[in-house]
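Help needed: design a sequence for this.
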């Protein structure tokens, strides 16, 4: 008797678990239903579920027109949450599926902006700075008449300033540690820079960061 009761309870638990699972997992929805669910996820600030539901939408509706706006919305949502790699993933997906000569510069601009927003601390991410400089130079050559040129030029100026500041900081490190060869290399870089001898305001770190991040 006890064994039968135990089996009955076990079956009940399993059925309840399956019921919860089936309620959480969505499938075989229309593109419009998937889109509404993703918007609902974003309104609830649940980007993880929005990502999962995008995967469902993309697998069931490979080339649906609603995917175009969904990709842009998800990219911008991840940028807003400072999740820049995921934002780039969605922008790359957009490029594969929907990029045209009409909107290619906008998507490239968004990718550059994602890198720019990811750059938060002036003495970190040297590779990101150099990569972004090259990407902006290429962008301006490929799209000389883009409406995003002023915005991208501003980003480039800030990246250039950051590189100059970083070189100056490294030169000061070599000077203080009496490594003359390294100091001379960076000193020359600084003197050849467009910002040399110009009045600029160096970025300042909060005291709680400067304790640990000062070279």
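Sure. Designed sequence:
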């Amino acid at each position: 008797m006890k064994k039968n009761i135990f089996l009955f309870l076990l079956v009940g638990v399993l059925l309840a678990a399956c019921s919860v699972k089936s309620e959480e997992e969505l499938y075989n929805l229309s593109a419009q239903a998937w889109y509404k669910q993703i918007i609902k996820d974003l309104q609830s600030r649940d980007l993880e579920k929005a990502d999962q539901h995008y995967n469902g939408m993309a697998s069931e509706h490979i080339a649906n027109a609603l995917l175009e706006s969904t990709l842009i919305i998800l990219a911008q949502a991840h940028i807003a949450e400072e999740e820049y790699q995921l934002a780039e993933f969605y922008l790359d997906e957009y490029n594969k599926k929907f990029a045209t000569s009409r909107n290619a510069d906008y998507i490239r601009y968004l990718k550059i902006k994602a890198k720019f927003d990811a750059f938060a601390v002036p003495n970190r991410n040297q590779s990101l700075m150099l990569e972004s400089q090259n990407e902006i130079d290429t962008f301006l050559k490929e799209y000389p008449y883009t409406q995003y040129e002023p915005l991208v030029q501003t980003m480039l100026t800030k990246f250039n300033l950051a590189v100059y500041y970083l070189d100056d900081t490294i030169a000061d490190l070599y000077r203080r540690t009496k490594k003359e060869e390294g100091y001379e290399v960076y000193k020359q870089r600084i003197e050849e820079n467009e910002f040399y001898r110009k009045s600029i305001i160096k970025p300042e770190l909060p005291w709680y960061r400067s304790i640990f991040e000062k070279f």
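The two ends are 74 Å apart (CA to CA).
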